[in-house]
Amino acid sequence: MEPIAAEHALLPDDALRALADALRESAQALYPSASAEVSFEAPRRPEFGEVATNVAFSLVRAARRSPQDVAAALVADVCERAPRVTQLFSSIEAVAGFINLRLSPSIWQGTVARIVREGEAFARAAHRGVRISIEFGSANPTGPLLVVQGRALSIGDALVRTMRLRGYDVFVEWIINDAGGQLETLGRSIDARYRQLSDPAVPFPDDGYPGEYLVEIARRLHDSHPELATMGDSERVASLARFARDELVAEQQRCVARFGVEYDLWQSERELHETGKIEAGIARLKELGLTYESEGALFFRATEFGDDKDRVLVRADGRPTYFSSDVAYHYEKLQRADRVIDILGPDHHGYIGRLSGLAAALGYPGHLDVLIAQQVTLVRGTEQVAMSKRAGNIVTLDEIVSEVGRDATRFFFAMLATDSPLTFDVQLAVEQSNENPVYYVQYGHARICSVLRRAHAGDVEAAKVTDLSPLKHAAELALARRLAELPATAQGVVDALAPHRLARYARDVATDFHQFYTECRILEGDVAVRHARLALCLAAKQVLSTVLGLLGVAAPESM
After folding, report:
1. Among 353, 336, 331, 352, which residue's Cα sits nearest to residue 287?
2. Contact yes or no for 311/325 (Cβ under 8 A)
């Protein structure tokens, strides 16, 4: 049979689906009483092949034969029964009960052709009609954003971008915690700073927010609102708290925008109180019979849903607790989204079970995921980074972005799994070396662009529609196989809520391109080979650009 032309070749997933169908047909013919379970995974050792299936093990009982015998029988039957399917593979071997596979080069050539043809649309899935609400980065409106919020921003925004690529409707939210004790503490703190401008002897509250940023805000308010000095203490503190909250939220919004993250909603906790949503959430729990009163307070039966204790909703003096805000906020989100995701800070582990139980209590079991963005430790080489002089005892996100740039900051924050503590080396982040992961990946993209600039314009245009059958070198096929992983990698990021896979994948693509660049002369030699290799460059450029874009990192054309 003639080889399949690259432009008509099936893609890897298509080939595996076809083989899975053929294996099930063979299993049915050989072992009618059995049900074949066909799935594919990467072998533990690359020399065993590109993909493997353990389908033979699911048939052993019915066949009353060893896994190896069953695997060999399946391979023989498929090769006889479905020759057009087996043509899609360069090898199909039964080894130790597994069926090890290598796909035909035409499959990988076809993937390269598709990437070049589809461009930015490659890996983009059709609209699914699934609504996702995701909240991340939210910080108390009592100070500037810190590095740990920056990590949540990087993780959350990478998830949002990837979910949208894969066809999900995503609504991005920030909760402004502007009700309760923290705002009262902010008011007393800014009031002390405000009065200290006239009388340095005014004491500062023991539990106040000590950052220098409050002095700057107090000075601006002192100049723009001199009337505050004539107010009574409680009225002045409340007014200063509101002014400071507005300034700090505006500063947080500016910082978030500088970081390249966009929100659909900045939800005020105070607004939940003022619009009756707190009462609506509590009323829903009452309707479900999940509340009770004790010593004048209203409790939610949280222990029925896995929490370690029942939670107070309304105190004995009639004031709603912070948890009641959680009830109202999540009840509203769960009603308008098919899936709700919260990314919280490292001191919120207790919220995982608590909020998941709340979702179940409200009638939405399994609809809420809670991730913890673990702590960030800043170092410069072997030395821990000194605390911020401007902020007193904190390191701000703005300071890190100013020192190492947005690209490096976002890439480093997203490199490790969300639940793993991160050590951020600011010295490494600015190095122009292969040791710096973001530089290494961006340099890969820039190197591709350099190759394309040096190529003849006519060759680049021809590469977009060329025959790709000359792509047979091991380095060429390794790069093509890696590029083909983008759709599955992106979907895996969504399914597992694991954006660090994007950073790892970007480095793998860059590594495979650098290897291809080293082993294959791209701009020399036979015209057919040159055009095919330029097409592979175009595909690699597109994939790297897409992945860097998902991470919120620029894809430079020169460095």
Report:
1. 331
2. no
pLDDT band at 289 (very low <50, low <70, confident <90, very high): very high
Q: Is residue 44 part of a domain?
A: yes
End-to-end Cα distance, the chain: 48
Question: Tell me, what amino acid is at 506?
Answer: A
Cα separation, 284 vs 274, whole angstroms: 18
Question: Is position 123 within any domain?
Answer: no
CA distances from 344 to 349, 407, 420 (A): 8, 23, 13
Tally of CB atoms within 10 A around 527: 11
Write out the two tokens for 512.
Answer: 């495979």
Strand partners, 265: 173
pTM confidence score? 0.91
- Do 543 and 446 lie in one domain? The reply is yes
In this structure, is residue 133 part of a structural domain? no
CATH number for the domain that contains residue 545: 1.10.730.10
For 202-212, the pLDDT digits (tens) are 999 998 888 88
CA–CA gap between residue 537 and residue 70 (Å, rounded): 42
**What angle do the packed helices 527-550 and 474-484 form, to 10 degrees?**
30
Show the tokens assigned to 552. Answer: 């919120």
Q: Are strands 376-380 and 291-294 parallel, antiparallel or unpaired?
A: unpaired
Distances (CA, A) of 356 to 97, 169, 171: 41, 22, 19
CA distances from 439 to 106, 377, 412, 486, 498 (A): 33, 21, 11, 21, 22
Whether residues 98 and 185 share a domain: the answer is no
Of the residues 49, 76, 103, the one at which a domain ends = 103
Going by pLDDT thresholds of 50, 70 and 90, the confidence category of residue 181 is: confident
> Is residue 228 a contact partner of residue 221, using CB atoms and an 8 Å limit?
yes
CB 198 within 8 A of CB 229: yes
CATH number of domain containing 48: 3.30.1360.70
Beta carbons within 8 Å of 302's beta carbon, 6+ residues apart: 309, 310, 311, 354, 357, 358, 361
Q: Which domain holds residue 533?
A: 433-550
Judge whether 71 lies within some domain: yes
What integer pLDDT is reported at residue 388 of this predicted model? 54
For residue 162, count other CB atoms closer than 10 A to its CB: 26
> CB burial class (10 A; 0-12, 13-18, 19+) of residue 432?
exposed
What confidence tens digit (pLDDT) does each residue in 225-247 have? 888 888 998 999 999 999 999 99
| Nearest to 120, CA basis, from 443, 541, 557 | 541
Residues 440 and 533 in one domain: yes
Last residue of a domain, one of 237, 258, 279: 258
Residues 55-83 have pLDDT tens digits of 999 999 998 999 999 999 999 999 999 99
| Number of neighbours of residue 76 by Cβ within 10 angstroms | 14
The structural domain count of the chain equals 3
Q: Comparing C-alpha atoms, which of 551, 256, 263 is closest to residue 396? A: 256
Burial per residue of 225-244, b for 16 or more beta-carbon CB atoms within 10 angstroms, e otherwise: eeebeeeeeeebbbbbbebb
Q: Are residues 443 and 545 in the same domain?
A: yes
Helices (H), 166-211: 181-196
